[in-house]
Amino acid sequence: MLETPQETFQARPGLFLVSAVPPLLWLALLFFLPLFLIWGYSFGEKRGLIDIEVVWTLQNYADALDPVYVKIFFRTLFYTALTTAICLIIGFPVALVVAFADERWKPFLLLLIVLPFWTNLLIRTFALMRILGRKGTINGILEKLHGSLDAALQFLGFAGLGTFQAVPMLFNHFGVVFGLVYVALPFMVLPLYAALERLDKSHLEASLDLGAGQIRTFLFVIVPMTATGIVSGLIITFIPTLGSFLTPDLLGGPDSAMIATIIARQFGDANHWPFGSAIAWLLVYVTFFLLALQAVFTARRESRLRQAGERATGQEHGAAA
Amino acid sequence: MVFSRRPRQLREPFAYASKLGFRLFFLATLVFLYAPIILLMVFSFNDSKRNIVWRGFTTKYYVKAWENTGLVEAFINSLLIAVVSTIVSIVLGTLLALLLWRFRFRGKTLIEALSALPIVMPEICVGIALLVFFNRIGWPNDLPWPMNLSKIILAHITFTFPFVMLVLRARLVGFNPELEQAARDLGASQRQALFHILIPYLRPGLVAGGLLALTLSLDDFVITFFTAGPDSVTFPIKIYSLLRRGISPDINAASTVLILLTLLLAGVGVWWQTRMQKTTLYTANRPAVQ
Amino acid sequence: MPNPEDIARPARLHSEAPRGETPRPETLRPETPHPETLRSARMRPEQRDSERAESAEEVIRLEGIAKSFGAVTAVHPTSFSVRRGEFFALLGPSGCGKTTLLRILSGFHPPTAGRLFIDGTDMTAVPANRRPVNMVFQSYAVFPHMSVGENVAYGLKVAKVARSERQQRVREALELVRLGGMESRRPAQLSGGQQQRVALARALVMQPKVLLLDEPLSALDAKLREHMCAELVRLQKQVGITFLIVTHDQAEALSMADRIAVMNHGHLEQLDSPETLYTFPATRFVADFIGRINFFAAEVLADGTVEAQALGKFRPAQDSLPQGAATAALRPEQIVVSTTAPPKQEGRSMARGTVSLLAYYGDYCTAEIVLEGREDSTEGESEGGTEDSPKDNTGGQAKMTVFIINNTPQAREIAREGQAVWCSWAIRDLLLIPQAGGG
Q: What whole-number distance in Å separates Cα of residue A243 and Cα of residue A280?
């Protein structure tokens, strides 16, 4: 590990100020100030079409407890948890393949997983609409199969299958979760891959050497030793999915609204900024809570394992020298 | 029985990539990720409104998309926003990365955590916060082109430069500070050491971070949606409004153009990175000490 | 169907004659003598004893085991056996294939060719977790998320050993490695040396047929390494398990092992006891790799005498040397240095020289002595001198390195650069290695 220079303000005040002031000022003005502003608005009251007065009322938060919204909160939570779980189930084997692939292939495989992430989200969602729709690719294929099967059955003298009913996959819960998984998968694979990549392979070999099989090694060595990666994968998938706007909006039906849909509505047709601000801040609080959870978990885990890990890597360097 | 069975071949225990089950799973995942995009691109050339039956090759939807002035304008707007916000992002991101890597000061951990916040904050929150902010300070809505894009550019810079910072910090971890000290030892000023040694070392990170910023800016819908004025339309916003009205094949064509552009950017990025790694004069590691 | 016992026990292989079964391209010269014949002239009684012990039961047998990674060959077909209860070392420079061989034994690399027997059973296709061998990893691979006790108990738990017995055996294993009472500690709380002991206990508790140790001392500092060397020998004697250690450090291998297999470029160069390896290296590589040695270009003449650069003409102690180019080798400690000409003696030879370079090591010095060229010596053909090592006397000035024990009256005389000296040695100490063995 290379140590970083630990210069102080006194040593190079010019460079310090030049590198500190512009980015930090930008963040303060265009990120924290706006967030603070809507934090204030969330305690505000609407006084006309565009007039808002901050009166420090909790009414907006109380309004959020309306069963209509609570139902949406729970639905959002359900979508997000389901999406995160599916991503973990798909992501772990994928990350295993990439992390344990031949060194020559690794960057290529990783690129294959990440590349869709570089494609425009809206275009990807649109592509899914064309696949899942009533007249989309999947239903088209099913219709063909149905037709062939129907003809075959009738030829053999059986009763036909009747007319083809398109499988509804769009504008419903299925469509939303499918889209959320499609978008979030790289978020899960990357931290898992990073954790597996860091894992000293000799631990797995030691487990096999001591008689354990592949499954036991996976459960008792790989999973505990990549726990921080798994947790950060879960959280890094959970947070953006929780705040999804486009996916439920385009792939969902009338009963697929998520939190972001409510927020957007308050700044659109519903035109109730204080209420929208309050819900947005609820989302921010949840985000903070999850980030803190991850930080605590990682810190506890790392402090328990760090020394050992550092020693192990130090030894490897020593051996290489 | 005369023949003897060949003993079962032993395999490398952790070569998951060579196990059939894992291979099929990986392949299925790739199909899941790529099939929608590839079908979209293929059927943008299909002479039919439906996208299951191939009815012959045509480029008429590209012509149609090209003739759609609203779409072309939106595309130009998106490119302009992306380029400008990328340039500013690189500058701000580099400064922030240098600050956090180089200096020791009170509250550094807090600043570190806060400066990564725009990356994890839900887009919808950032979007409405900026909407309220611009509204509150009374940013004019009726500026002439291209100044009407200014709000979007400011918003894009805000969420892209922390990404540039992260990429650069990852690169800085491998920098050997003794290189800069060696330059000083050979008579370079502090400023020269910075520009002759550190900045060239950062170049691959600058390219990678820049490409990331460019893509994120081209990609963004939610934050743009809330900061765009009525007459400042970007490509994703245009597509969104077209989609709301129903799927039409010229969206296929326009999307394909953007996908290819992104692929080109990613390709250039990867090519540049490998070239840099091959030709770079800096080694991340110190020579092993016996 | 053939009887599995027949597969498992084909004709006994001569464990010390790897070249017999595996002809190497470089050693195709038919006249290459077996190391056995080279040494027959000077066999000492205790060596004959060790030969007899060869009939002891073997616990590991490799038959033509080879491994290549793509186009790269890591191990050429290799055959040898490890005897039950011995301390066996695989020695060689990095990249010589010794670690690959160890990983083939433990089951992490499937061999490309050949068969592997452990305790008489064909284990070539048996996965790592079903092999009765256990390994101490170079990085120790102590599971960081388990306590010391859980680490040691892991293998027993997998094997479904009852709880009470498990606890008992874990305790005993930890006491064996002198970590008694540390069950509940976390690996992060242990020093590197202690972690290694955990790794040792974790493998030993399984009572393996063979304990495999991958460079176990490389990560320790010099003092601890010396201590651990002795500790490993003690442990091996105490538990009676066969130890197979992989190392690149010849001093480690010489001091610990009963027998050493020296590897180079994926070939087994020589397998012998430490004394035999040092005294009678079979190849130039072995001679060079183990200890210090001086090489001189030489030629074996038709009448059996040898003409060597700077050493002159002499009749070697070895019989039946193949005619042609060879290398004469002499260990520094076999050379006597004096400022005055030593008296002529039957069976001894001498040369004049000048001390050119001194290196001080505290208890002794090494001195490089430039020998005066001898008119009657034939100039060595420099074809064998592909390596540019200074001790490789194939042309130009002949040099030899000698040891001088410090703090003796003699040393004070000799250990001066530019000092004219006489070097003398017993002719029977000159070792002749046929060119083909040079590599």
A: 9
Distance CA B146, CA B238 (A): 17
C10 touches chain A (CB under 8 A): no
List own/partner pairs for A197-204 with CB under 8 A and 24 or more apart. Answer: A197/A99, A198/A229, A199/A99, A199/A225, A199/A226, A200/A309, A200/A312, A200/A313, A200/C139, A200/C141, A201/B14, A202/C137, A202/C138, A202/C139, A202/C141, A203/C141, A203/C143, A204/B13, A204/B14
Of C370, C372, C399, C394, give the one whose Cα is nearest residue C383. Answer: C394
d(CA C74, CA C266): 5
B62 part of a folded domain: no
In sequence order, what are the beta bridge partners of C328? C296, C432
**Cβ–Cβ below 8 Å for B7 and C122:** yes
Contact: A210, C129; criterion CB under 8 Å: yes
Most B CBs within 10 A among A21, A35, A129, A139, hence the mutation to make, goes to A35
B8 interfaces chain C, CB cutoff of 8 Å: yes
Sketch the domain layout of chain A as residue ranges.
54-118+171-304
For chains A and B, CB pairs below 8 A equal 272
* For residue C127, cis peptide bond before it (omega within 30 degrees of 0): no
* A228 touches A195 (CB < 8 A): yes
Residues in chain C closer than 8 A to A216 (CB atoms): 158
Query: Length of chain B, please?
Result: 290
Residues of chain C in contact with residue A221, where contact means CB-CB under 8 angstroms, are: 143
Each residue's pLDDT, cut to its tens digit, for chain A (321 residues) gives 466 777 888 888 888 999 999 999 999 999 999 999 999 999 998 887 777 888 899 999 999 999 999 999 999 999 999 999 999 999 999 999 999 988 888 888 988 998 888 888 888 998 998 889 888 888 888 888 988 888 888 888 887 777 888 888 889 999 999 999 999 999 999 999 999 998 988 999 999 999 999 999 999 999 999 999 999 999 999 999 999 999 999 999 889 999 999 999 999 888 899 999 999 999 999 999 999 999 999 888 877 765 544 444 444 333 332
Please answer yes or no on whether C154 and A202 come within 8 Å at the CB atom. Answer: no
Into how many domains does chain B fold?
1
Q: Write the DSSP symbol of residue C305.
A: -
- Length of chain A in terms of residues written: 321
Distance from CA of C401 to the nearest CA of B (A): 24
Query: Any chain A CB within 8 A of the CB of B93?
Result: yes
Q: Which residues pair with C308 in a beta bridge?
A: C298, C312
Q: In this structure, what are the phi and psi dihedrals at residue C370, rounded to the nearest 5 degrees? A: -85, 120
Report which secondary-structure segment, H or E, holds B219: helix B199-219
Helix, strand or coil, per DSSP, at residue A12 = coil
Closest CA to A239 of B212, B152, B221, B125: B125
**C189 contact A CB<8A:** yes
Structural domain range at position B155: 73-255
B210: domain CATH number is 1.10.3720.10
Report yes or no: C359 and C366 within 8 Å, Cβ to Cβ.
yes
| B-chain residues near C108 (CB < 8 A) | 12-13
In a domain, B33, yes or no: no
B121 and chain A in contact, CB less than 8 A: yes
How many Cβ atoms are within 10 Å of B287's Cβ, its own excluded?
7
Is the residue at B186 inside a domain? yes
* Residue closest to B97 by CA, chosen among A31, A23, A28: A23
Please report, for residues C38, C40, C77, C279, C284, the alpha-carbon distance to residue C19 in angstroms, rounded to integers and kept in the order given.
15, 18, 10, 20, 15
Q: Which residues in chain A touch residue C134, judged by CB atoms under 8 angstroms apart?
A: 209-210
Chain B touched by A4 (CB under 8 Å): yes
CATH superfamily of this structure's domain A54-118+171-304? MetI-like (1.10.3720.10)
In C196-311 the beta strands, taken as DSSP E runs, fall at 210-214, 242-247, 259-264, 267-272, 294-300, 306-308
